[in-house]
Structures are given as C-alpha cells and as structure tokens.
Amino acid sequence: MLISCNKLKSYIKNSSDIDWENIWNTFTIRTAEVENVKKMGNNIDNVVIAEIKECKKHPDSDHMHVLMVDCGEKELIQVVCGAPNVRVGLKTAYIKVGGHIDGMEIKARPLRGILSNGMCCSGKELGISDNHDGIIELPNDAVVGMDIKEYLPINDIIVEIDNKSLTNRPDLWGHYGIAREIAAITNHELLPLDIEEIKNDKEDLQIVIKNPELCYRYTGLKLDNLKNNKTPLDMQVFLYYVGMRSISLFVDLTNYLMLELGQPMHAFDSRVVKKIEVGLANDNDTYITLDGVERKLTKNMLMIKNEDKYFGIAGIMGGLDSEILNDTDSIFLESANFNAGSIRKTAVALGLRTEASARYEKSLDPNMTDLAIKRLVYLLKRENPNLVISSNMTDIYPQKLQKGSIKLHKDVLNTYMGRNLDDNEVKNILEKLGFEITIHKEYFEVIVPTYRATKDIKIEQDLIEEIVRMYGLENFEPKPLKLDLTIKEHETVYNQEYEVKYLLASKYDMHEVNSYIWYDTEMLKKLNVFKDGVKLIGKSENNILRDDLSFSLMNIVDTNFKNYSQFEIFEIGTIIENNVNKRMLSIILANDENKIETIYLKAKDIVKYIFKVLKNQSVEFLNSVNEKEYYDVDLGKIICVNNIRIGQLNVLNKKSTNKLCKKKVVVCIDIDFDKYVNLDVKAKVATEVSKYPIVSLDYTIILPENIKYEILKNVVSDFKSKLIKSFSLIGIYKNKYTIRYILGSDNKTLEQKDLQTFKERFIEHIKNNNFDIEE
Amino acid sequence: MEKELENLLVSLKNELDKCTKEFDVLNLKSKYLGKKSRLSEILSELKNMSVEDKRLYGSVINNTKKQMEQEVNEKIENLDSKVNISFDDTIDYDVNNGSLHPVTIVAKEVTDCLKKMGFTVVSGPEMESEYYNFEALNVPKDHPARDMQDTYYLDNGMLLRTQTSDNQIRGMENYGAPLRICAPGRTFRNEDLDANHENTFFQIEGMVIDKNISIENLMYVMQELLKEVFHTNIKVRLRPGFFPFTEPSYEMDMSCVICGGKGCPTCKNSGWIELIGCGMVHPNVLRAGGIDSEQYTGFAFGIGLTRLAMMKYKINDIRVLNSGDIRYLKNFDIK
C-alpha cells in the first residue's frame, strides 16, 4: 500500500516536527514493514505557472505552435510547443531555461528554426499523471509566476508498506489510521476529520439486508443537484502518487475516502436506483462487472441488487449498468460493511481482487460507514456548493458493534515483558493508541476502540503486544533461559538420520539430495509406469504422492546422467504408503552397465556396513519375488535384520534404465527408517583374545556352473571344528572361490598335525558335497 | 704422519659425501680401510718403529681408523634409512568428496546450538491432519492461510503441512510442560516455482514452555542462534508480525548477505530477509496442547532453514536445492 506523507501531515497537529523521511524505520519496528520510501518532486525545479498570451502556428511545422507566455517576468517569453491544446489564455506549467524535469536540464534551443526558451509541460512530464495528450491545464485562478510546487503537492514522500504486514490491522488500510499510528509513535495529536453533519429530516431510502450474517451494515445517502466536475488537481496528484487513476469527481471521491479512511464506498447513478437489496446470488447466474467482464455467480456470493436485478458484487465491484456517467447529476452513495470471509471467498472464486475487497477481507470496523459518508459530503460540497441532500442517511445496522473491554492483569504483563512497567506508562501507551484505560490494583480495565476490535484485539495478550511494540522492542535485553539441568532426550530420530547421512557422505563419498514428495508426472510417462496413491486436490500434474522413494529419485538420476557417467546419491525422506507417513532411506548407485557386479556388491556392503557400525547388527539378503514392475526380476533382495524385513535392494530393469540413459545400471537400496530407528544397538561384550598365535589357511573351491556362493556358504558353515575362529570369502576368480579360515586355540599353539588333520577333514567335507577344491 | 692421517680422514669424508649408493660406500671402505689401503700400509710400518714411536703413533693411527670406520658406518646407516624414490611424489589428484545437503548442514548447526541451550530435537509427519496443522494452532476455519492457494490438500482428507508448527501441538501432547523442543522438517506451500519461491522447503520449529518465560528469553535464543550459524554478529531487526498461534508475534529479519543490505532480487530490494517468525505462544495453543495457560507461558519460533542455507552459502536460486544436481551439491561438503 502506498502512503502519501503530505496527506498524513494534514491529520497531525504540529506535523512539521516529525522527520518524515526517517520515521519509517521506526514505523517498521513499531507497526508494520515499510518496503520503500521515495521522495517525489526532487527531479523537478524552476517550473512556474504561466499564461499563454500569444499563439501562432509554427511556419515550418504542421502541429507546432510558437507561443508567447507570461511567467511573471517583465517580458513575455517565446516558447515552441507541439501540444494540441495550446490556446491564448490557457494557464499551464512552464519550465524555465536551466530548469529540470525528470532530472533533465532544459536549454534554449531552436525547433525547426525558431528559438524555444524553455518548455510547457504535460502532467506526465511533471510526474503527476499519465496524461501526455497535451500540456497541463491549470484553473483560471492559478497565479502566474508561482512555483508549481507551491501550487500543487508535487513535493511529497511516498511510502510503500508491505500489505502482508497489515493483514491483521484493518485500521491501517487508510491514511487516517496510519496517521493515528504515527501520532502515537511520535507523541503527537491526531486531528479530527472535517465532516458534514447530515440532518435526518427527509425520507429514508429503501434498503433491505437479506443476509445480516454477511452484511453487517449498509448506509446509504442520496445527493442531488450535482455536477460531475473535474477533480481538484491536488487530489488528482494525491491519487496518482498512491497508485490510482483519476476518473471523475464522484468516482475519485469514493476512492479518496477509501484511501483516507479505509472504507470502500460506491456511488451509483441514482437515476436508476429503485430499491437496494443485499442478498445472495443464484447459482449459474451471470453478471457483467464495471470492467466489462461477464462473471459467473454462485449461491455463496453476496450481491447488491436493485429491486430484483443485480447491481454490484458486494464489497468487490459494481456493475456496468449503474456506472457514473458524465451527465450524472444525482448519486446514491453506498458505505457498507460485509463479512470478511465471504468477501474473500467470492473474490478468490471470481479471481477478482480489488482495492475494496482487499480491505473488506481484513474485517473493517462497521462503525465507520456513516463517518465516511459525512466526510465525502463535506469534500463534495467544496466542489459542488449547491448540492442537495435529498434523503435521510439511511443506516441499516442490525447489530451494532459495541466497544468491549478486556482485563489486563499486571502479573501477566510483567511475566511476558520480563520487567515491571509503571501503571502510568501502560496507561499512556494504550491511550495514545485510542484505548480507554482504568487502573485497578491487580489489573487494568481496557476498553478497545471498535476499529481495533474486529480482528486483532481480543485477549489480554493482544494488549501486551501493543504495549511491547510501543515500549520499543529495542529496549528489551535478551535474557538466557534458566536451565533446570534435567536431561531429557525425547526422541533420537533426528540424530539417527544425521548419523547415517554423515556416514554415507563421508565414508562412501555420496551426495545427499532432497527431492519432492510427489512423483514427477513426466517421469512416470517417460518410464511408462502407472502409480496410484494419495493425490493432491486440484492438481493434474505432479499430483501423486510417492510410495517408493528410490523410484521417485529417478528424476534426479536422469538429471545427473547428463553430466556424470557414474554417481551415488541418497535421501532420507517421507513416502506415503497405505495412507501412512513413512520415513525411508534411499541409496542409489548409478554406473556403467559393465560395472554391475562391482556396484551391486558395493550396495550390499554399504547396507551391511551401516547396520554393523551403527547398530551392531548383521544383515541377511533374501531373494525376493519381483515386487515392482520397473525393477529387475531376478536381482531384487529383501534386507532382513533379526529375521525382520527392514528394506529392499533392487536394480532398475533394463527397459526403464535405457529410457534414462543407455548402457547404464542403477542399483537402489530402500531402508525402512522408522524400523531402523526403533532397532536397538545390539549389546556389545568384550571378547578375550587368545594369547596363542592364530593361523590363517586359504582354500580355493571350484563351483559347478549355476551354483552360487550362497550354497557354498551353507556347505562351509556346516563344517565344524573347535579350531575355527572365523571364515570369510576373500576372493573370486571366475568360478573359483577362495575361503580363508582363521584357526587357533585358546589353550595351546597349534601344531602341524592339528592343521594337517583340519585340512584333511575340510577337503573331505567339500568333496562330499561334490565340489572340487584346489589342493 | 699425523698430517697424512688427517688428510686421509678428510678425503674419505669428502668422497663419502658424494656417495648415494651403499655399493659406492663399500668400495670406499675397502679403498681406505681394506688390506691394500694406505692406512693398512701405515699400520704395517708401525711394526718397524721404536717402542716409543709405536706408543706415540699407535693410538693416533687407531683413533683415525676408528673415526674412519665410524664415518663409513654412519653413511651406510643413513643410506639405509632413505626410501628409494621410484614414484613421482608430486602427483596431486583432485579429492572426490561426498556431500551433505546444505539444508542438512545448516539444520545441524541450528540444532547443535539449540541442544546446548537444552532443547531436544523431535520430528513430525509431512502428511498432516487439518487439526495439527491449523485447528489446534488457533487458525480458524475461514482463515486465509487455510485457502487452497496456499495449502496442498489431499484426497484422503489430510494435507501436506504448511509449517513445522504441528510439532508444537505434538510436542505438548507427548511431553507436557515444562518443554524445550525443536523440530526441523520439510514443509509445503502451493506456490509457483521461481528463483525465490519453492513449494517444498525446510523450516525448524522451536518451542519453550515454562513458568515465567518472557519475550526477553525469546530474544536471547534467537540472537544466539544467528550468531552461532553465521559466526559473526549479523544485523537483525525484530518487528511486529502476525501469526495466529503466537501473541504477541514478531518477525525477525536479517540484513541480506547476498547484497550486503543494499537491495537485490533475493531480498526484494529491501536489504532485509525475513528469516524467523516468532512470538509468545497463544493461550489457545497452550490449551490445545493440554497445558495450563494460567500457569505457564512460552515462546515458539519458526526459522526458514532453506532461506538460512541460501543466506549462508549465498545461493541465489532456490531451485537448485531440490534439483539433486550433483554439480551444485558437491560444493557443500559435509560440514
């Protein structure tokens, strides 16, 4: 929202004491975030009011004129001007030679052979309107020679306040509210607004509220004998500076009131108004709004109706058929208050958010509708002294919002603030903001003005907020928490996740990625995979929540294949399986197709390593039946710890892999991290180390075709001897598997004959199982 | 003769200095100390000398011999301890390191700091109910935050949490008061992606409930946290904000480190980055968590971890964070 400091100054007594450029830093930390402060008029100088005294056609141009202008100096000055609206007697803005507009210096220079000493300028050139159709036309009473900056409020400071930070402050959606806040911050007095009191000695207007739960108040007034004159220039400048376009006096005044008080208003051409009714629309009806767009209505949208015809969408936009015209001489003023939620929903449904709806959404104070009308009449009367108030100010206000009171307990205030405030300091702060306050022994009785009561001030904590911000957040001293020294570890999920991530990144040099919780629709299409699951409402793409973390990472795999032929990534993330959140660890190893053995075995190694070092548990890999169509039929493994399934290892099948990148292999590990977290670290007990030497013996066994290590491992496990400390597979060459035994005894040094016996028994055992052994 | 012996020793030393191989040293040994050496000759001449001369020169000759032997032995030892260089010791490969996600690294720093202040780390679900995400947090039914534009609603009646604040309620329910928890986690908002907007991002929630908790305690925790993460005094400002679940509510901004506060697209030209939303826990929220709001007060805060990571590492496009592109990620290492 844009705010004009000139306007604010007019509401505050002794406003020149305030540093209007720098007050906004304070405003940001007291009230709401200021995004920008811009000085206007800085780049213009030496522009004065001048009158055109002579006007001749330029002999060498079809559109330029040679003017002699009076700018208050002794002699007339010759100026060449290309504007179409030049004429003798016109008062306009003239820039002297050496003066500036838009920061550019104006020099005396010939235009098609005739010297132009300075320039007459348009509203756009002055930076006060978009109008560049001709030079600016000033009223007849403008004084020749006067600096234009004295005549028009060109010098101003325009402040942009972040709308989001005003969400909770309906009272700040107009200049007067901002002025109230500035006055409170700087200890100044807020001046009352000049208004026109309206005598109710005429007929009431016909106004009916059908849905009082959606329309809290509707105030109307009929005015006659009007002329839709030009809007005064200073008001035009103000409107332009705060982002609005001047349209016509009546429309501009309603906008002005909205900018001043925050109260949206509407002026209907009263020649067409019969009876106003506020009620809901019918489903599927259509209505053409002021902007010429046909809108489709629903039964939840509140409408202003003229008898039984739609007349406007309540609180959002009027209709084309009630538009103010140039010859309108009688208006029906609407100043109303609506339910904020209803306005917001309608505006969202129509995709039509207007200045009015933005304000109504904030829950405006219903007690200001009549003030707005009185103020508008006051301002209108200055331009239309002969206006006639032709109706009562008709005010339908079924349930008047009364001022409420809140008890603010001193002990609560002191606890929140961490310090004790003087009673009078509290009183002072709250009174400046418009609260009425009575001091009691234990508490303050605070009466809340209705402009603060609709939304943000409901409980005593809301009052504490007011006191704290006005007291000044910068006046607090950060204080450490008192530790009670009770050790409480509520859960270890985070620590365990971090431990695993750190291990994967540091030991295995993998990269942690973060992805999205939904499947990428394009990727599903690309891999020709159909996924069903929990869906996002109102989305047609990327709308299915993932139930397979590894598979959802295929986008990232795809991305990285563009730059890397091999890479390893992991993520700990959420999947949704059977409607339940589940944490998963996914590890993906991608490499060239011919490295499949290396990375497949590495994948198993990684899984074993994680469980060994972090949980002291051993892992088993069971052959799985193919569970998902995009994984390889034969290579899937179920990962088990203590005979409980904790994850799976898969290889993306060739068809899918080829669609990502040819001649590659992608190995995926998925670990159920909820189960991992709950898995205990197996207790460790120190083992005695034998004081006698150990002996290692290697045997190479030749496996027949189609027999896997799994079988050999079982056979070797079946071989029992007191001497065996451990055995392990240490190498493979083609179908030759080398097993290393570590032998030893706890009570003697092994002799040659012990080893000989062991060897003979082992070879016999292997041969009995129909394997060959290299001796 | 003494002179000659001295010369022999010096010349041996000189020759030894030039040797680099054991073989050469052994040759020198036989040249100077062997049977055909000059020293050997001198020794044999000793036989013909008088007893007095024998006594006089004998010890001199023996000393020289010992010295020469020592020189040779030392040289051999030194040569033995030297590794034969048979490789290029200037080879210098690039390190191939793994990396943690920048958000993980920042989250670790924040949680470590909070742990020192006695917080424990908890976690909540990403698919959340309306109750925990809104209702219990004092966000009424018609509040704009509940709008479809901001929230991803799901066809099973749940939603993707829009904030980590669900952990406040879950934390109070699970552990009661006094309470000191923090909860890093992923959150979702229905936004169109651009350099500054993501629909999936990280926050960390914090909550402290105890007797006599004040705004000053809140300020302390926030200030220490930023100091810890940025290792310098970062310029911050606290200003009034609005969140339904806290009252009073504040926003903490930090001076934009991308542009140094001058204004850039990341800070929307304001020079400030909104980083932390915080405030005193609303009595309704305490009540929803089953905590006596007359007896206890507390504060809560939510920090944009994604935003924090962007500030810390000067990342100017938020989209790289969820891209999984190793070219970016590998730069972040693990700490």
Which secondary structure elements does this structure contain, and how are they paired or packed?
The complex is a heterodimer of chains A (775) and B (335).
Chain A: E1 2-4, H1 5-9, H2 23-30, E2 34-40, E3 45-57, E4 65-70, E5 77-81, E6 91-101, E7 104-105, E8 109-111, E9 114-116, E10 119-121, H3 123-126, H4 148-151, E11 156-161, H5 175-186, E12 207-209, E13 215-224, H6 233-241, H7 249-261, E14 265-269, E15 276-280, E16 286-288, E17 294-296, E18 302-306, E19 309-313, E20 317-318, E21 331-338, H8 340-350, H9 355-360, H10 369-383, E22 388-389, E23 394-396, E24 404-409, H11 410-417, H12 423-432, E25 436-439, E26 443-448, H13 450-453, H14 460-471, H15 493-507, E27 511-512, H16 521-526, H17 549-552, H18 554-561, E28 567-577, E29 580-592, H19 596-615, E30 619-623, E31 637-641, E32 644-651, H20 654-660, E33 664-672, H21 673-678, E34 695-702, H22 709-718, E35 724-733, E36 736-743, H23 752-768, E37 772-774
Helix pairs in contact in A: 7-10
Chain B: H1 2-18, H2 22-33, H3 38-46, H4 51-81, H5 102-116, E1 120-121, E2 127-128, H6 130-133, E3 152-153, E4 159-160, H7 166-175, E5 179-188, E6 200-210, H8 215-230, E7 236-240, E8 246-255, E9 272-281, H9 283-288, E10 297-304, H10 305-313, H11 326-329
Parallel strand pairs in B: 1-5
Antiparallel strand pairs in B: 2-4, 3-4, 5-6, 6-10, 7-8, 8-9, 9-10
Helix pairs in contact in B: 1-2, 1-4, 2-4, 3-4, 5-8, 5-10
What would your notes on this structure say?
The complex is a heterodimer of chains A (775) and B (335). With 775 residues, chain A is an alpha+beta fold. Chain A folds into six domains: 2-39 and 158-186, Phenylalanyl-tRNA Synthetase, Chain B, domain 1; 45-154, Nucleic acid-binding proteins (OB fold (Dihydrolipoamide Acetyltransferase, E2P)), CATH 2.40.50.140; 207-396, Phenylalanyl-trna Synthetase, Chain B, domain 3 (Phenylalanyl-tRNA Synthetase, Chain B, domain 3); 409-475, Phenylalanyl-tRNA Synthetase, Chain B, domain 1, CATH 3.30.56.10; 493-678, Bira Bifunctional Protein, Domain 2 (BirA Bifunctional Protein, domain 2, 2-Layer Sandwich), CATH 3.30.930.10; 695-774, Ferrodoxin-fold anticodon-binding domain (Alpha-Beta Plaits, 2-Layer Sandwich). A seven-stranded mixed β-sheet of chain A has the order 27-28-29-33-32-31-30, with helices on both faces. In chain A, strands 3, 4, 5, 6, 7 and 10 form a six-stranded antiparallel β-sheet that branches. In chain A, strands 12-15-18-19-20 form a five-stranded mixed β-sheet. In chain A, strand 35 (724-733) and strand 36 form a beta hairpin. Chain B is an alpha+beta fold. Chain B has two domains: 2-81; 102-332, BirA Bifunctional Protein, domain 2 (2-Layer Sandwich), CATH 3.30.930. Chain B is built from eleven helices and ten strands. Chain B has helices at residues 2-18, 22-33, 38-46, 51-81, 102-116, 130-133, 166-175, 215-230, 283-288, 305-313, 326-329; strands at 120-121, 127-128, 152-153, 159-160, 179-188, 200-210, 236-240, 246-255, 272-281, 297-304. In chain B, strands 1-5-6-10-9-8-7 form a seven-stranded mixed β-sheet, with helices on both faces. The longest helix of chain B has 31 residues, at 51-81. At the A-B interface, helix 2, helix 8, helix 11, helix 14 and helix 15 of A face helix 5, strand 1, strand 3, helix 7 and strand 5 of B.
